Amino acid sequence: MKKLLRISLTCSILLLITIILTTCSVPLSDAYERLMKANGFAAFEFSMEKNPELPVDCRGVYDEENERIDITLPTGTDVSALIPEFKFLGKQVLIGETEQKSGITPVDLSATVVYTVVSYSDISISITVNVTFEDFEETKPTLTEVTIFSSNTGTNDATVGDTVTLTMTASETLLTHPTVTFSIGQDPVADTIIDYTGSGSGPYTATYTVDASDTLGLVEFTISFQNMNEVAGDMVTTLTSGTGITTYVETTEPLGPNISTGTWNYLGTDEAGYFGTTSREPKLTKDSSGTPYLAFYADGGLSFAYFDGTGWTGDISMIEGLSYEQEWDYLILPNDTLVAATLESGKLRVYYNKTGTTWDPLSPPIESVYTGAQDLTGHAVSLTSDEDNNFYVLLQRHDDSPVAKKLTCFKYTESGGSWSMLGTDGFTTGRTDGKIDLVWDGTTLLAACGEGTWPEAFVYEYLSGTDTWAVKGAGNFASGDSIKSIEMESDGTDTYVALRCSADLEVYKWSDTDSTWLGIGGDVGTVDTSSVYQVYDLEIVAGVPVVVYKDTSPSRGRIKSFNGITWEGSIFNNADWIMSSSLIFNNEGQPIVAFEDGITAADGGVSVKILE
Fold it and tell me: What's the whole-model pTM score?
C-alpha cells in the first residue's frame, strides 16, 4: 500500500528574508519578487471527520517543483463531492473564479482539478491535484528493531545519574515519535520527562535518567506508535536483540532489610535448644497477621508452635508416625488454614488444620486423584499455594529402583475440595538425590530438582494450556558444578533460585527479557566462596533476595542480602554445627531464623533468633 503522507512546503519567507539580507549576488528586485510569490499549500487532506465515507485520513504530498499535490484514495471512493481541509500561504484559494473554503467547499475530483493560490501581492500560482487509487488495507506498522543501552561503563547496568536509552526502528514512516513508558517491576521510573529523537521510520530514541528513588532491577518498557494513517501498531514490551538494563544504587547500605547491623538474640527465650535436644529440621512461616509459626521434628512426629508476642506456645497438636529424616513440608494458606504434607514410611499423606489446634487427614485423601493401584511412595515433598487458597504438592517418587526417581505434582482445589494431577504422572525421570522446591509465582508453577550423583539444577515450568511441564530457560545453571542444595522463591514479580555449586553459593534471577537465568552479584551470581556447605532458605523482601546458608570455615550460620552491587550480611550463629535453618521476616522487617544447633541429640536441638 502506498503511504499517505503529509504535505511539506519548502518555500520559506524567513529563508527569503535571509537571502535578501545576506546574499549580495541576488538583486534586491529579484528577491522582493520571490518574497511576493511566497504562496502555496502548507497542508492538504481529506479527513474522516469531513468525509465519513473514508476509512482513514488521506493526506496529500505537495510536489513544489511540478506545482502538484499527489494524494492516494482508497479504491471505490466517491470523489464527486469530497471536502478538503487545507492550509496555505496567501490571501485566497480559487478554483476558476470560485473561492474555496477549507473544510467547507466540496470539490469534484472526477475531472482534473486546478487550485489557484493568490498571494497578498496578487501573484497567483496554479496547483494541480493528482489523484491515484489503491486497495486500502489497514496494515499495522511494526518495530523491526528495539534495543536498549546505558551510559554506564557497564552498558547493561545503570546507577543514579546514568541515562538509559531505548532505540527503535519502524517498518514504515511513523506519524510522530513512539511513546515510551519506563518502569521497574510494577513501579514507574521517577524521571517523567522522557527525551525523544528521530523521525520517519527511525531510528528513534527515548531516554530517561536514573534516580535514587527508582526501584532496583530490570528496566521494563511499553512502546506505543502509529503510522501516517494513524493506524496503531501492537504495543511492544520486549527487545529484538541484546540484553536488558539492570539498575542499582551505589551505596554501602543494604537496599532491602538491614541485616548487617544489630544483635542476634533468642526469640521468646534466652535458651539455646529451647524446643528440646531431640528437636530437628525447623521450618518457619507466618500467618496473615504476621504471627511466626514453627514446625520441627521431635519424638517420632511433627511438633508445632507459634509466637504470641512474648513466648512460644505449643497448643497445636502433633502429627505422629514419622521417623527422623523422612521428608515433610507445611504452609499457611492466605485464609490461615494450616496444611502439612508428610512421607510416613515413604507414603505421601496430607493434613489440614482449620481450627488452629488439631490436625486431621485431608478428606478426600490424595489417593483419590488416582485411578487403579498407584504407588505414592516418595523420596521428597514440597508445598506451595496460590492466592485462592488452592495448594500444590510436588512429590519426588521412586520409580522401579531407588536410584531412578521422578516428579509428580498434585493440585488441591480448596473451593471444590478435590484433587487433580498437573501434567503426567512422573513428568520427568532420572532425577536422583537432589533437593526439590515448588513455588507459585502468580501465573505458573515452578519446580526445581537435582540430577546426577552430584546434581546439576533444573527448573520446570507448568504450561497450563497443554497440561505439560517444560524446562524453563536453558535449564542448567552451572554446567559441571556439583549442586548439593537448591532453594527457590517468587514474590509474584521476580523468581530467584539459590544453589550451592561445588563450594560456592550462587543466586540467579529469571529474566523474561532475555529468557534466561541471570546471576545476581558478580559475574555468575556468586554470594560466597568460603567453602559453603548448604543453602537453607531464600526469601524476597521489598524486591531484594535474602539467603540463609552454612559455611564451613569454620561452620557458621550466615544471612546475606543483595545491596545492588554486592552481597552483605551477618553471622547469626557461631556454633560448630548447624544442620538446617529457616527464615522469615516479621511485619517490622526484622529477620527471624530457626536453626538446628548440633549434629547429635546432645548438641542442642532447635533454636530461634531475631536480629534486633
Answer: 0.60
